[in-house]
Design brief:
Length: about 475
């Protein structure tokens, strides 16, 4: 099969979050199983010069953005065995940053139309186009309205993947004709609650809708999680399914990681103790055998920071130390800074994001706390387990799917159901009790490290979905 992934970012060319990690890894995993899988993203100004130097110019065309005709350059490069295409337009993408501009609607209308126009000029005819999040949600809409019956475009199937349903591409109705150039008699495809909703358009027109974990697929049918889209999703749930994301097991490998104090593995775990000692020393925390809880996150409410605030000192009384890395809302930054000032021997807080320190926390902490309100997939819990650090999570989205509670001594972490601070505190207490039993803890760490979160499993599921659509 020929599969084209369309996305707004991909590691290593442009990244702002988990979407880039997926697009940087999943196509290579699918390609390794015998399919031609390619990727198309915008050519941003922020791409590193050494990567830009590897690009090859293919051609330039014009793309219709309603009544305008805009320049579009097409570049290509091969990374990790996968062919990448880059859509170039200085006016739209020659800026500092990826998103957050006044004309984001027009920028990604252009990109979506350009992806379909590009197919006339490249030596690749996709059987499947897999779109990702609202920035590419118009591709199946444009296909349905303009391209479906054109020569060379027949029988392309569309899979739309929701990475985070919170961001939907909501705009006023005037953009339908003025920016998208879609006739008013097609308004029903995109109209939702009196506005134009790009994600709703993709849900209407794509052949399949996927999410990044099985639990998130049924959670977004509930108004609590859906940010208003539950009504359309309930009607379309016959084409909705969830496929668990993976992680890059080469990038996150304690046997090869040169950033950590000592390499280790499930069979030879001794190096983890060295990593813990090095972490405590680097962050000037009191040495000792007490368990260390790591937190690497954005300080925003949906990450469950309110729960941590509410019982933070109660967790310390259980005999824990904290190593915290992140940034976000000032109220949370100020809280953690105060805790560091009050408990300098057992609490370390680093504001900002430092990838090297994040790796050291994954390797050196004993537990990793993720009490999210919602979590479409979550990567940190999988990375922490890879490094033998036991996750303590709330049962939501990908956290529920990847972490099995160790209540019967057959799990790989600790979890709690309700969004409640004292339920989280109880999970921390159970983790502490398990930690104090050296034999049980060693077995738990080994189970966590042997959990398989490679992209290979996800690739098999996506390939199965594609084959179903192509009747193979």
């Amino acid at each position: 099969m020929n599969i084209l992934f369309a996305a707004s970012e991909a590691v290593p060319f442009a990244a702002s979050g988990g979407l880039a990690d997926v697009i940087g890894s999943l196509p290579a995993a699918i390609r390794s199983k015998g399919h031609d899988c390619r990727v198309v993203i915008p050519l941003y100004k922020t791409m590193r010069p050494e990567l830009r130097a590897q690009l090859t110019f293919l051609t330039n065309i014009t793309v219709d953005v309603s009544w305008r005709k805009q320049y579009c350059g097409i570049f290509t490069a091969i990374w990790n065995g996968v062919t990448y295409y880059f859509i170039d337009n200085e006016y739209y993408f020659g800026r500092e940053g990826l998103y957050g501009f006044y004309d984001d609607c027009e920028r990604f209308v252009f990109f979506s139309r350009a992806v379909l126009e590009m197919l006339r000029y490249v030596d690749f005819a996709p059987d499947i186009i897999n779109e990702n999040d609202w920035q590419t949600a118009l591709i199946p809409v444009f296909y349905q309205v303009f391209y479906k019956y054109q020569q060379g475009y027949q029988n392309i199937k569309h899979v739309f993947t929701i990475h985070n349903i919170q961001y939907q591409g909501n705009y006023g109705r005037e953009v339908l004709n003025e920016v998208m150039g879609i006739p008013l008699y097609h308004m029903g495809i995109l109209d939702y609650d009196g506005a134009i909703n790009m994600m709703k358009g993709a849900i209407e027109t794509a052949d399949k809708i996927t999410t990044v974990s099985p639990s998130y697929a049924w959670e977004i049918l509930d108004p609590w999680y859906s940010h208003g889209l539950d009504r359309i999703l309930v009607n379309k749930q016959y084409k909705l399914c969830g496929i668990m994301n993976g992680i890059d097991t080469d990038l996150y490998d304690p046997q090869k990681d040169g950033l950590i104090a000592k390499k280790f593995s499930a069979k030879k775990p001794a190096g983890k103790k060295v990593c813990k000692e090095a972490l405590l020393s680097e962050l000037a925390l009191q040495e000792g055998d007490e368990p260390v809880i790591g937190i690497v996150t954005r300080f925003v409410s949906h990450k469950g920071i309110d729960l941590i605030r509410y019982v933070f000192e109660d967790i310390l009384k259980l005999g824990y130390k904290f190593v915290i890395l992140g940034s976000g809302e000032k109220i949370y930054e100020d809280f953690f800074s105060e805790m560091r000032w009050r408990y300098p021997d057992v609490v370390s807080v680093t504001l900002g994001f430092q990838p090297d320190l994040a790796k050291k926390i994954y390797a050196g902490a004993d537990m990793f706390l993720m009490p999210s309100q919602s979590e479409p997939c979550g990567l940190a819990q999988m990375i922490s387990m890879r490094y033998g650090t036991i996750p303590i999570v709330r049962e939501t989205g990908g956290l529920r799917d990847s972490v099995k509670d160790d209540g019967n001594h057959d799990g790989n972490g600790f979890s709690f159901k309700t969004y409640n601070a004292h339920d989280m505190l109880d999970a921390c207490r159970r983790a502490r009790e398990n930690y104090d039993d050296a034999e049980q803890w060693t077995a738990l760490v080994k189970r966590a490290m042997l959990s398989d979160f490679s992209w290979s499993n996800s690739a098999d599921s996506y390939i199965g979905l594609y084959k179903e659509l192509c009747n193979q």
